# Entry
Amino acid sequence: MKKSILKSTALVLCAGLVCCLLLTAAIFDAKTTQQTETQLRSLATALGSAYDAQAWQFSRQIGGLRVTVIAKDGTVLGDSAADYKTMENHAGREELKAAEGAGVGISVRPSETLGTRLMYAAVRTQGGDYIRVA
# Structure
């Protein structure tokens, strides 16, 4: 009987801990997303219609994050981590589709260029192009 009560208590405590961890992760994710969106809106205003050299320069200014400048039609105009001239059209990327409608789009997926899982955050500029940070 004592063991049964102890097991039940331990299960309830573990379930409560898991719920707290999930809630904390959700709050952290929401806060991080909101901060990223705010920074991307500022970035879009600051960069306007930047290209490759400006992508490199901005990447250095923000601590080495990957910056990609993408035209309205999905053509890559500049990238701080790869040769943009060899990159395929990005029109179908999740973050760009979301940014087209909402102004900001975020996705987490493997990078085809770098071969590692990245979080992409894209913002649509006033001119209709996109600035994406990974």
Summary: The CA atoms of residues 82 and 113 lie 7 Å apart. The two ends are 55 Å apart (CA to CA). Strands lie at 67-70, 76-79, 104-110, 117-124, 130-133. The chain has a mean pLDDT of 79.
